[in-house]
Write a structure and sequence with these properties.
Elements (H helix, E strand, L loop, with lengths): L16 H9 L8 H14 L4 H5 L2 H7 L5 H4 L6 H4 L9 H19 L4 H6 L7 E2 L13 H12 L7 H10 L3 E2 L9
Parallel strand pairs: 1-2
Helix pairs in contact: 2-7, 2-10, 9-10
Length: about 190
């Protein structure tokens, strides 16, 4: 008996185990853990101008360099910037490293105001994931009006490197938006 191969989103049609695992178990899946959301924001901003595969293959390096994305610790890492800029396990872009530390500081301030990153982000979608009907990869936008609105608010609140494309990628990464193809096994 012949079996039909599993259908996945175009970008996950690969034999790269990390890409497959990320696609199948994380991307588009709702996540409400503020530390994980911070990790995804950090990785998405690091991806700007690069491929997701590049970032994913350095994820463990980022986790080690940025205290497993514990934003309380990352918020205090300004003195470690010189060593981060020499760390070959991460992308050594000063503006992006500064943005990660800055964004951690914003999250700590959010907590002091009685909120969490989870509440902050998920309130934009009334705590309900947006499940899009995606027939082909061409149906997936790089940004939306909602992502532009969130980006504008995030920038007003002090976040850096949080443009609409980064924000939309974050929304996809943490499951605020499900853009899996309709016939994808991970939908």
């Amino acid at each position: 008996m012949k079996t039909t191969p599993a259908t996945r989103c175009n970008w996950a049609n690969t034999d790269d185990e990390l890409m497959l695992a990320y696609h199948d178990s994380e991307w588009g899946k709702p996540n409400h853990d503020s530390q994980h959301l911070f990790e995804m924001l950090s990785l998405e901003l690091m991806q700007a101008g690069l491929s997701w595969k590049t970032i994913l293959h350095r994820r463990s390096g980022f986790q080690a360099a940025f205290a497993n994305f514990d934003y309380h610790q990352v918020a205090k890492m300004e003195e470690q910037i010189p060593s981060l800029l020499e760390n070959p396990a991460i992308i050594r872009n000063r503006r992006k490293i500064d943005a990660i530390i800055n964004n951690a500081q914003v999250l700590v301030n959010l907590e002091h105001q009685g909120s969490s990153f989870n509440e902050y982000l998920w309130n934009f979608v009334a705590n309900e994931p947006i499940v899009n009907s995606v027939v082909t990869a061409a149906d997936v936008p790089s940004s939306t009006e909602l992502a532009k609105k969130i980006s504008k608010k995030m920038k007003q609140d002090g976040f850096k490197f949080a443009g609409p494309v980064v924000v939309y990628s974050l929304m996809q990464a943490c499951g605020m938006v499900n853009d899996h193809l309709n016939d994808c096994i991970a939908k």
